[in-house]
């Protein structure tokens, strides 16, 4: 499988560009290949595929993660539309703790973001009717579901909202700021 892999500012977060083979019919692409992704440093066993539709441009979902013992790594791509996709480092002891990095993902280009375990994940839709699909390497565990406010001033993500209010869920509006997040669990940086 042909793909390029770019390390982002937090180098465990990867931007992957699978090769698209275009012809008169359209294109073909491998969107996941266990061997090629393992060689690229993504040696997860993905166990669940998720998909969401956000109707409005300026919809923000996040910042979400599952705490131990049910953490999840995520491999995110866009099926329709475009997003700014973001990962926030929550690994105690990481030089990037509390920092974010991210990339624009579009259906047209087919880029993917790999968000490792120990990171919160969120995105903002850049177009209406945006569909996002992502693989996760741990099953949904509602008891371990956790999140942080998308507009946490300490994380300070410049969401592309053009001055408009974000469309968010009631649940996401009640999430804590990182500085107030109380959990007996911590993520460690892998050795
Ligand atoms: C995440 C998830 C939710 N659900 C259910 C719970 C709830 O009733 C409904 C909607 O859930 P949410 O409001 O949490 O959906 P959403 O806000 O889209 O949550 C997602 O946001 C992005 C940013 C992520 O990174 C994902 O891991 C996930 O947290 O779907 C599942 O059944 N399985 C799952 O894996």
List keywords for this structure.
single chain; 191 residues; mainly beta; Jelly Rolls; 6-stranded antiparallel β-sheet; 5-stranded antiparallel β-sheet; binds dtdp-4-keto-L-rhamnose; isomerase; RmlC-like_jellyroll; EC 5.1.3.13; RmlC-like; dTDP-4-dehydrorhamnose 3,5-epimerase activity
Tell me briefly what this model is.
The protein is mainly β.
Instruction: Look at the structure and give the CATH class.
Output: Mainly Beta
Number of domains as seen in the coordinates? 1
Look at the helices and sheets and give the structural class: mainly beta
Per CATH, which architecture? Sandwich
Describe the sheet with the most strands. Answer: 6 strands, antiparallel
Helix content: under 10%
- Number of H/I helices: 2
- Please indicate the percent range of residues in DSSP E strands (runs of 2 or more): 35-45%
The coarse silhouette is globular
CATH homologous superfamily assignment: Jelly Rolls
Q: Cofactors and ligands present?
A: dtdp-4-keto-L-rhamnose
Q: How many strands in all?
A: 15
Assembly type of the chains comes to single chain
Strand arrangement within the widest β-sheet reads 1-2-11-7-13-5
The Rg value, from CA coordinates, equals: 16 Å
Distance between the termini: 29 Å
């Amino acid at each position: 499988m042909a793909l390029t892999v770019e390390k982002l500012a937090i180098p465990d977060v990867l931007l992957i560009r699978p090769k698209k083979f275009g012809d008169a019919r359209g294109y073909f692409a491998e969107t996941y290949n266990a061997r090629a992704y393992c060689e690229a440093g993504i040696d997860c066993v993905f166990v669940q595929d998720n998909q969401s539709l956000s109707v409005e441009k300026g919809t923000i979902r996040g910042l979400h993660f599952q705490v131990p013992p049910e953490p999840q790594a995520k491999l995110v791509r866009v099926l329709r539309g475009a997003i700014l996709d973001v990962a926030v480092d929550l690994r105690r002891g990481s030089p990037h703790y509390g920092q974010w990095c991210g990339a624009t993902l579009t259906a047209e280009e087919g880029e993917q973001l790999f968000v490792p375990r120990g990171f919160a994940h969120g995105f903002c839709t850049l177009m209406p009717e945006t569909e996002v699909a992502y693989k996760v390497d741990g099953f949904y565990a509602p008891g371990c579901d956790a999140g942080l406010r998308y507009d946490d001033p300490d994380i300070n993500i410049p969401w592309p909202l053009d001055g408009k209010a974000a469309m968010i869920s009631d649940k996401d509006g009640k999430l804590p700021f990182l500085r107030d997040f109380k959990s007996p669990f911590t993520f460690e940086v892998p050795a």
